[in-house]
Fold:
Amino acid sequence: MPRSHTSGVNTAVILDHFRTHGAPLTLSKTGVVAWDDAEFHRAAHAADPERYLLLALVPGVHESQRARALLQTLVSSRAELPESTRVILDKATRALLFGLSPARVITVLLAARRRRANHKHVTRATLAFILDHPDAELLVAARRPALRDCFEHALGKNTARGCLRTITDGDLDLPELRRKLLRFSADPAVAVERVRQLYAPGTYGAPMLTEPIAPLEPVRAREPIVTVTNRGDIAATLVHLYRGGSAYELGSALTAYVTAATRGLPRLPGHVALVLDTSESMRGYGEREWALLSQAEALRLVLAQVCAQLSVIEVGAGQSAPTDLATGVLDALEAVAAKTDPRNAGDSPESSGEQNGASARVVIGGRQTTGEETVSATPDLVIVVTDGYENRLPGDLARVAATLPLIGVHTPIVLCRAMFTGSDDRALRDPAPALPTVGFWHQDDFAALLPWLFARTPAGADWIRSAAHRFLDTLPEGVTP
Structure:
């Protein structure tokens, strides 16, 4: 399927919906499946089934949206899809089966039963969850009737009960049993025990497991008190540098942390412009001094490694100039020739307090270069990183953002708001309400932030697809088929 800029825009729309629409997927006692965005999911799946399901794996997506994507994928036919796409869908389906909370997965399987979805991939997915889940014994004890209904829907009631009779009679070596049941399980001996448990007398009040066995996003441990040095390793190292630490010693540590943060991420082709607010409010003071600026610089270092071409336009340099975000955006869109930024993840970053004479600095692939570099085209994306305080011509960024499309400039512009904690009050920190906006305060936020940003570029859909493929390839044994 050919990729296009339109595909990238559609990717952004789908991802925004997955991130912001958190209404639960429910199944009533009468069997009615309730999801208020069913038509949206049908259209997104029909456009590109592989892209649709892989977007559900992106960090930051609501679990209820992942459940919807799993359901839509299960109930949809794969008859016209190429084999390579089916393999990816099987891997992603299995990742969701074990990456969502068991209660949500059971709801999805019951909804598929209600929709009378009898595709072969529904059979494989249902039996993989019931027979191969490491905690299946506990799940069966807690949700025996529901799982038995799903089991009989997957095989057919007569086939399922015929397999039970064969198991009860002890004829475990019959080829028919393997053909109808055991071939769907990674461990036939365990599968036999699971079937026995499904039809054994139940135990009232057994607790239900609440956590997935293989979470799609790692569970992060947070310090109870947020400081400037516990918001990620990159930002913490930068804070020590800004406070006068040894550039030689901290520089090597910074290189290692940036490398670790970007390891395994594909490269994004094209040109990204970063408008970086380095004003006094970004520096901060007291216990929060350097907190926002270090996190913004951490994002710049990560983008420099991931983007093939990154231009950086600083506004408010030296913590003394006014925060003129609108002019920074216009400078980014001009894409004029500028001196190459000699800094990269392996160099000691100069303090953001030092004045920079160039209006724009260009980083090409994170490599250290010298001389002049010419930006040959308008950027594919403009990222404005700021704390949200616009102390020169307030509202100017909003007016510029509203005017650009009217004069034929359609380059996507997004606002990334640097915060000290995730609970910061942002009521007075929204200089352009019409722009797509996201907040970040910890290095861990980059995992969700990068796909959200890149989805708006022409190459973003392919970047997310490649990143998702790499993620599926690294899943632990027993989770991928």
Observations:
- The chain is about 45% helix and 10% strand.
- The beta strands are 26-27, 33-34, 268-277, 307-315, 338-339, 361-363, 372-373, 381-386, 413-418, 437-440.
- The mean pLDDT is 87.
- The longest strand covers residues 268-277.
